[in-house]
Amino acid sequence: MTITNTKIFFRYLRKNILFIFLVLQLTACTKSNKLKTEAFKTTSGWGYTIAYKNKIIIRQSVIPVINDSKSFSTEEDALKVGNLVENKLSHNRSPTVTKNDLILLKIKF
Q1: Dihedral (C-alpha) 86, 105, 101, 73: value to the nearest 10 degrees?
Q2: Averaged in consecutive runs of 10 residues, what is the pLDDT profile of the chain (109 residues)?
Q3: 47, 63, 69, 75: least surrounded by Cβ within 10 Å?
Q4: Which one, of 58, 83, 97, lies nearest residue 49 by Cα?
């Protein structure tokens, strides 16, 4: 009798552990990043915005760090820097961009 009860207990336990594991996997996969980066057209090139829960928190229309107030030459360049800043914000780091960051991303300025 105890062997049957033990088998039933472990079968029940295994099913519950599998269910809990699947639920945890689904919640981890559906966790969405609330930050969203988009490029926008300026009069002289491109810029980017970063929104948090559909509210714009950063709007950058010029290339940061350089002495000129010049926009990004391409949409891809604006998105590269925007994604870098988004990544920094996601990891609770300062969103500042350095000249070295621009060089590593191959941004033309």
Answers
A1: -80
A2: 66 64 64 84 96 94 92 96 96 94 93
A3: 69
A4: 58
Q: Which of 84, 83, 40 is nearest to 62 (CA)?
A: 40
Residue type, 19: F
Separation of alpha carbons 60 and 95, rounded Å? 12
Alpha carbon distance 97, 84 (integer Å): 8
Instruction: Give the pLDDT score at 84.
Output: 97
pLDDT at 80: 97
Sheet hosting strand 55-60, strand order edge to edge: 35-41, 46-52, 55-60
Question: Ramachandran region of residue 21, left (φ > 0), alpha (ψ -120 to 50) or beta?
Answer: alpha
